[in-house]
Amino acid sequence: MTLTLLGRSNPLASAAEQLRILDQPSGSPSFDLRLTQAGMFPLRASGITVFQINVGKLCNQTCRHCHVDAGPDRPETMSLETAEHCMQALAKTDISTVDITGGAPELNPHFRWLVEQSRRLGRHVMDRCNLSVLLLPSQSDLAEFLAHHQVEIIASLPSYRASQTDAQRGDGIFEKSMEALRLLNRFGYGLSDSGLALNLVYNPVGAFLPPRQEAVEAQFKKELLTKHGIEFNRLYTITNMPISRFLEFLIESGNYEQYMTRLANAFTPAAAAGVMCRYTLSVGWDGRLYDCDFNQMLELPVDHGAPSHICDFDPAQLHHRQIVTRNHCFGCTAGSGSSCSGSTA
Question: Is 16-333 assigned to CATH 3.40.50.2300?
Answer without folding.
Answer: no
